[in-house]
Amino acid sequence: MKVLGSFLFILVFTTFSFGQYDIQGKIKGLSKSEVYLAHYFGYNQQVIKDTVVANEDGEFRFKGTDQLPKGLYLISFLNSKFIDLVVEEPNFSFSLDTTNILQSISFQNSPENSAFYAFQKRMNDLYTAINQPNIASARKQSLIAEVQQFQKQWKSSNSRLFVSKLIESSFDPEIPVYSGSLKNKADTTKMQLFQYHYYKKHYFDGMDLADERMVRTPFLQRKLERFFKDLVVQESDSIAREADILLAKAKDTEVRRYIIYKIASTYENNPILGTDGAFVHIAEKYYIGEPALWDTSTVRRMKERIAIIKPLLLGKQFPAMYLTDVNAKEIKVGELPFKYTVVFIYDPDCSHCKQETPKLVALQEYFKSKNVGVLAACIGRDMGAWKKFLTEFKLSSWVNGIDIHMNPQSNKEEYYTDFRNRFDVYSTPMVYVLDAQKKIVGKRIPVENLKDFIQYLETRRK
Fold first, then answer.
1. Which residue of 47, 105, 331, 428 has the lowest C-beta tally within 10 Å?
2. Cβ atoms within 10 Å of 431's Cβ, excluding its own
3. pLDDT digits (tens, 9 = 90+) for 234-264
4. What is the sign of the dihedral through the CA atoms of 268, 272, 277 and 282?
5. What span, in angstroms and rounded, lies between the C-alpha atoms of 415 and 401?
């Protein structure tokens, strides 16, 4: 694959912070080893805020005058071991034994973490009991009821703490009992639809979208990804509609920016066909439409990105591509006589293109039976390399073009097509599929999936 560059925008998040911090720890089993303090930024990224070396007794101290943003942190030690802790109070201490972290950990001057680990310890004990082999059914049901009672009591007792929000945000919504009849298959379908719609509508109920600290936890990212992957139809209008509903609830600036960023980055180059329309919607409404949320360079880059992607959405007329054939004759894409046109944009020097080209050639007989033509557009501007490629892969049955045009007055080569910005070619090969009117009906289709995709188009049009 030849990579030509990709769009990248950088977010700068402000933080809900306090001044000095002083966190002291003692870890039994640790000696003269590095210890890291980092906060979560989603579940798969941590931002290191401080690093120290523990003494021979496992004692260490994170101390600083810089602002430390509030949220859920982790302390990492001994390579693979770590603990989660809430940084809400700027000054506290803790101790633990590496042989049994959960049972040994204790905190001083930190109601947040004391409550956090009391919850974890009790839940661990209850679930250990529930999962005992050969447990009696009545005992198991009793323990499950105890879990529910404990969670309810714990949330009530700790409702003013941030850790209560953390625990609540990790839970799924409870679906009420269906009140309709269940006499036949149609009734069952109604019940399932009721459960789905209720679950979807209330999915974010436990997540406080007005609290910027939720950005520095794993839970907001997990909920966003699961919601848009499993509960939203992967079609641009549906994605855009659900994004609008969610963002109407997200009033905090940092939470709002994070949600916008995550949805936009998910659908900018999503492998699911056609979902880039959701990216355009998000970019226009929440980047261009809310410039105060972003720095000027981010807004500018978004405008540039929209200018590239929007003309290439499904259903759009394929933009003009200025090519000449091996006889230096202009190729008019709009006049190609095919029911479907596969536009194969490649570079003769691209190793991945050389791997994919024979796969496309192998579809020649099938394409012929369906009136599918291949327009192979070379982005290189070396006439010799281009013709060598055509000969090597025996591409005479294709419509082959290159962006080299001879100026009759100066007798010099001229180039008219900006493949990167006009056709979003940031890697090669790039594939578009056009209908008879040369409107885009598919893009970035892997070559090995083209036959199935043409069959899908044929079935859809019957």
1. 47
2. 22
3. 999 999 999 999 999 999 999 999 999 999 9
4. negative
5. 13
Contact assessment for residue 70 and residue 90, using Cβ atoms and an 8 Å cutoff: no
Tell me which amino acid residue 69 is. Answer: P
Average pLDDT over residues 421-427: 94
Peptide bond connecting 429 to the previous residue in cis, omega within 30 degrees of 0? yes
pLDDT of residue 462: 56
Could you tell me the two tokens for 410? 């100066």
Is the pTM higher than 0.85? yes
d(CA 430, CA 424): 9
Q: Which among 410, 390, 412, 408 is positioned nearest to 399, based on CA atoms?
A: 390
Closest by Cα among 50, 89, 16, 90 to 258: 16
CA pair distance 108, 93, nearest whole angstrom: 5
The DSSP string of 31-51 is -S-EEEEEEESSSS-EEEEEE
Residue 281, C-beta contacts closer than 8 angstroms, at least 6 positions apart: 236, 239, 240, 243
* pLDDT score at 6: 39
Instruction: Calculate the CA 80 to chain-centre distance.
Output: 26
